[in-house]
Write a structure and sequence with these properties.
Distance between the termini: 31 Å
Strand content: 5-15%
Radius of gyration: 21 Å
CATH class of the largest domain: Alpha Beta
CATH architecture of the largest domain: 3-Layer(aba) Sandwich
Low-confidence stretches: 154-158, 164-168, 178-193
Structural class: alpha/beta
Order of helices and strands: EEHEEHEHHEEHHHHEHEEEEHH
Number of domains: 2
Number of strands: 12
Shape: globular
Mean pLDDT: 89
Largest sheet: 9 strands, mixed
Helix content: 25-40%
């Protein structure tokens, strides 16, 4: 199963809860930002400038270092028409690339099906965390969900190795191929076999890993370290997914948001250092997104659900810079008190699918969209 060919990988970090765009990519050169946010704002002298108008949150130091190296693309004003302020519905739209109807398949699940139509590698996509993100859900596509890579496997809590092997053999017989099974049992059999095979392969990744990079102890950094271990083990994995949050900062936003971005920037900085140490920084692209931004005006201690946001694409092969106009804060340009998104999220998905993975993006994102020039030639 292990290959000598280095695969390109997409690493997705979902900022769950609705990241506050205005306090992430801060329009510190626009006085209307401070007028609208008398309490919940980033002081001008604390912003990390990208230019004379906008800059990063002060907790994003490692991201600024990567920006200076030309490895960070900032996608401004990202979203979709007719924004929805429900966490569940908005995230569902991002996951399925279907704003007008209820999608049944995740965009990354469809991509994995195109990359591995016969399901030959049960580790083409791996989720690091509990559950299965809708973005990866697709009939016929197996996805491993890893809580802790160090202990991941079938029945890892059974300390007696002879008893564990007996239990594994029973599991294999239970989920083995049996002629004449009904479709439900056949699906369970296939799922069980995939889990059995995938667990055995993933268990090899930590033992192969060696690095001088010290990751932090927070949960996101540890998930990202696991991603690095699997990525560097060359197991044929192409899509890696993890989540962090909650970014639902209705109250106490300033300290909470600062800590969340300290976690994200620290984890991404360590990951890119790790990949660079191994000569693999050009083989990975890191996509960071959230389901929506927050309202323009603060509520005194936090900010409420809004629209318009920022996404980030990071990597050695990424064409770094600013993409799209920062949405206007002028009252006449607002959308009922929200930033008006001016950059369809599928314009970011499409070049990732086409330029990075060599896939036809249109059937995966449900239409044709402008392609942002996110990758170096």
């Amino acid at each position: 199963m292990t290959t000598t060919k280095h695969e390109k990988g997409l690493i997705v970090i979902q900022l769950s809860g609705g990241n506050d765009y205005l306090n992430t990519v801060v329009p510190y050169g626009d006085g209307r930002y401070y007028d609208s946010r008398p309490k919940v704002h980033i002081p001008q002298d604390k912003v990390i400038p990208l230019n004379d108008e906008i800059g990063f949150n002060p907790s994003m130091g490692p991201m600024k270092r990567l920006w200076d190296e030309g490895k960070v693309a900032v996608i401004n004003g990202i979203g979709y028409e007719n924004p929805n302020r429900s966490h569940f519905r908005s995230m569902d739209i991002w996951h399925t690339a279907e704003p007008e109807a209820i999608g049944t398949e995740g965009w990354l699940g469809r991509a994995v099906r195109e990359m591995d139509p016969q399901g030959e590698n049960v580790l083409t996509a791996v989720n690091f965390g509990r559950g299965l993100p809708r973005a990866l859900g697709c009939p016929g596509v197996s996805v491993a969900s890893v809580g802790d890579l160090e202990t991941y496997g079938l029945f890892p809590d059974i300390e007696d190795e002879e008893l564990r092997m007996f239990t594994l053999e029973a599991f294999a017989r239970m989920y083995g191929n049996v002629v004449g099974r009904d479709p439900v049992m056949s699906l369970l059999s296939k799922t069980g076999q995939d889990a059995y095979v995938g667990a055995d392969i993933l268990r090899t990744a930590p033992a192969q890993y060696s690095s001088n990079v010290e990751y932090r102890t927070d949960s996101l950094s540890q998930n990202v370290k696991s991603i690095a271990q699997v990525f560097l083990a060359d197991l044929g994995t192409k899509v890696y997914y993890t989540q962090h949050g909650s970014f639902d900062t209705h109250s106490g936003e300033l300290p909470t948001h600062a800590q969340l971005w300290d976690d994200v920037a620290g984890a991404v900085g360590s990951l890119m250092d790790d990949l660079k140490e191994h000569g693999r920084e050009d083989d990975a692209a890191v996509l960071i997104f959230s389901e929506f931004g927050r309202r323009i005006r603060d509520n005194g201690t936090g900010s409420d659900h809004g629209s318009g946001g920022a996404a980030f694409l990071i990597g050695g092969a990424v064409n770094g810079g600013l993409y799209g106009e920062y949405p206007s804060l002028a009252e006449a340009e607002q959308l009922n008190g929200d930033l008006r998104s001016n950059n369809d999220f599928r314009s970011t998905y499409s070049p990732i699918l086409e330029k990075w993975f060599g896939l036809d993006p249109d059937p995966i994102v449900n239409g044709q969209f402008e392609h942002l020039d996110l990758f170096r030639a």
